[in-house]
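Final report, Chapter 2: Outcomes

The project's central promise was a pipeline that accepts a single protein chain and returns its three-dimensional structure in a standardized token representation, suitable for archiving and comparison. That pipeline is now operational. To close this chapter, we reproduce one record exactly as it appears in the project archive, with the input sequence first and the structure output second.
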Amino acid sequence: MGDHDFMAQAIKEARQALTIGEFPVGCVIVHQDRIIASGARSGTRSRRPNEIDHAEMAALRRLDAADADFPPEDLVVYSTMEPCLMCFAALTLSRIGRVVYAYEDVMGGGTRCDFASLPPLYQALKPRVTGGVMRAASVDLFQTFFADPANDYWKGSLLARYTAGQ
């Protein structure tokens, strides 16, 4: 199995989030061609959105709960959107070896931060990053989300405008 196969599973997680009105981000964590944890974005439907329950954070919590004993540098995270700074820092500190994402987050993506300007801990742990895997499929989910008048989360934001132009 390859990047497209695992990103397809992350997109499935995102699609499930979208069906209940959540921001369509899905994530899977893979070790040696096997999904060992997954998560989807939650907490975006309320009047006061929860900014902690991101898909990557949910997947990391499930990985921890599974008590999986895999070398973290052998793990690959697949996310339908570029991880934000919070999630990318958590993935970095978790020593994840590789991060693959579908759609770039022009508003808050963390994978393009300047690691050279960060403290040495982060520089030593920086995962390898691959972007744009199954981008069109992810963009479709975000366009559907932002087109729904019932969804207020990030409506009118830079991300919503950028997505509309894709």
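Archive annotation: Strands lie at 26-31, 34-40, 75-81, 98-103, 128-130.
This record, like all others produced under the grant, will remain available to the consortium after the project formally closes.
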